[in-house]
């Protein structure tokens, strides 16, 4: 079905969120109220409004209707059952409260009202400032650093819960765990979640869970409420206990819009206690489905393995013989080996004897005749001695002839025949030419019986061709 525009023809919403209409066109009241409501919702964000409760009424449907006022004005409020059921307290006449609401219009009556999403007692502004200061301090110390966060176990053996035994959040968590993972045991560490000293007791339970080591993961949780109700989870002692825990911790405090210091210190923050239970528990249905898949895969693998083994068994069966036949074959084989061993032991001896006989025969054939050789050696010795004697005689005769020739050519023999040799005393050379003889020249004169040094007083030279 085609929808009609709430605005008459020619009318359109402006970019500022307001509506414009043609001046001469009548606008139905419902259309006008709807346009005003749309403009209010777009113009006013979600805001906290403080005032005093007046005319509070709880309808049979579970919705809350009341007014919030101060000394100068009042405003009608409505809080629907979906939000009201999570409120930690029910406002009463005269209570000072703060509501987190959206400005809307109840179109049938054209009445301005606040659509309340959360309610808290007055005074939470101071607590919120304390919350911000503590958060900044712990964050500066590194308690919220991502590298400090521990991973959650995939399949925990036991799950611990730190909360009050009377808390509705405990029932939600236990219901979720029994639905998702009924096989996992749950241990509850009871501690108050609201009131004086609750934060210290919660921190003590976290320390106790770490000391006992009974669980693999820990849930710290409670239901929603105002900032005062949740303040136990904003205490520094609990934050430090969570940060120093050796067990992984999931924080599930309040609703999705509620944040506490414990959420930042925990390893994982869940939007609700039920969400925390879902984070720490593997879903039984998924585990069973995965187990079925793995069982089927294991069965298929085992079947293929058995088929291969059966085929191998058939192959081995074909090779298998009876023990008696196997012994007979081994006996025959042993006899063959024995015969081969005996033959192998005798063959080298026979071969060695044959080789020895052949070598001895060859040795005897080539054995020398020592008598003839000895006679030949004696004869050769005699011939060698005679040859040495003749050679010595020839050499002696040759030396004598050379000595005679040398004696004939000896300078001494020449001197003995009356000749003399003149030697220049300065150069030590023989004088061969008269031209070298000068007056007062010193000469050494060699004669047959000696030599004498003389000095020339007078020289008369003449050249001749001989004596």
TrEMBL record:
It is an enzyme of class 3 (hydrolase). Belongs to the XseA family. Signal peptide: none annotated. Keywords: Cytoplasm, Exonuclease, Hydrolase, Nuclease. GO terms for molecular function: exodeoxyribonuclease VII activity; nucleic acid binding. Heterooligomer composed of large and small subunits. Bidirectionally degrades single-stranded DNA into large acid-insoluble oligonucleotides, which are then degraded further into small acid-soluble oligonucleotides. This is Exodeoxyribonuclease 7 large subunit. CDD domains: ExoVII_LU_OBF. Its main location: cytoplasm. It is found in: Cytoplasm. Residues 28-119 form the OB-fold nucleic acid binding domain. Residues 143-454 form the Exonuclease VII large subunit C-terminal domain. InterPro entries: Exonuc_VII_L, Exonuc_VII_lsu_C, OB-fold_nuc-bd_dom.
């Amino acid at each position: 079905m085609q929808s009609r525009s709430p605005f008459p023809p020619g009318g359109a919403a402006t970019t500022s969120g307001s509506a414009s209409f043609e001046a001469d066109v009548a606008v139905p009241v419902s259309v006008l109220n709807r346009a005003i409501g749309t403009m209010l919702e777009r113009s006013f964000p979600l805001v906290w409004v403080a005032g005093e409760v007046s005319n509070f009424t709880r309808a049979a449907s579970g919705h809350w209707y009341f007014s919030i006022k101060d000394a100068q004005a009042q405003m009608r409020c409505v809080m629907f059952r979906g939000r009201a059921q999570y409120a930690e307290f029910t406002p009463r006449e005269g209570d000072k409260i703060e509501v987190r609401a959206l400005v809307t219009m109840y179109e049938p009556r054209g009445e301005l009202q606040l659509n309340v999403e959360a309610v808290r007692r007055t005074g939470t502004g101071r607590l919120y400032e304390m919350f911000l200061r503590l958060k900044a301090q712990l964050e500066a110390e590194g308690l919220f650093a991502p590298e400090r966060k521990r991973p959650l176990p995939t399949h925990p053996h036991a799950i611990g819960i730190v909360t009050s035994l009377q808390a509705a959040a405990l029932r939600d968590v236990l219901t979720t765990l029994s639905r998702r993972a009924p096989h996992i045991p749950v241990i509850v560490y009871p501690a108050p979640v609201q009131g004086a000293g609750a934060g210290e007791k919660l921190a003590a339970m976290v320390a106790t869970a770490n000391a006992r080591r009974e669980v693999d993961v820990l849930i710290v949780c409670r239901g929603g409420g105002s900032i005062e109700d949740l303040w136990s989870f904003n205490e520094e002692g609990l934050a430090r206990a969570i940060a120093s825990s050796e067990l992984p911790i999931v924080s599930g405090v309040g609703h999705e819009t509620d944040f506490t210091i414990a959420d930042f210190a925990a390893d994982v923050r869940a939007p609700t206690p039920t969400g925390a239970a879902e984070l720490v528990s593997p879903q039984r249905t998924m585990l069973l489905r995965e187990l079925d898949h793995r069982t089927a895969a294991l069965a298929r693998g085992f079947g293929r393995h058995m088929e291969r083994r059966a085929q191998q068994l058939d192959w081995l069966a074909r090779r298998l013989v009876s023990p008696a036949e196997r012994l007979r074959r081994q006996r025959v084989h042993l006899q063959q080996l024995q015969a081969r061993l005996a033959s192998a032991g005798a063959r080298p001896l026979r071969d060695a004897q044959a080789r020895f006989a052949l070598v001895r025969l060859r040795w005897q054939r080539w054995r020398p005749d020592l008598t003839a050789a000895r006679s030949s050696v004696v004869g050769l010795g005699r011939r060698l001695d005679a040859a040495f004697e003749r050679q010595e005689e020839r050499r002696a005769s040759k030396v004598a002839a050379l000595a005679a020739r040398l004696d004939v050519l000896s300078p001494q023999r020449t001197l003995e025949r009356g000749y003399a040799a003149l030697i220049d005393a300065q150069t030590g050379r023989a004088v061969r030419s008269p031209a070298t003889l000068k007056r007062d020249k010193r000469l050494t004169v060699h004669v047959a019986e000696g030599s004498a040094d003389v000095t020339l007083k007078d020289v008369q030279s003449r050249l001749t061709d001989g004596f």
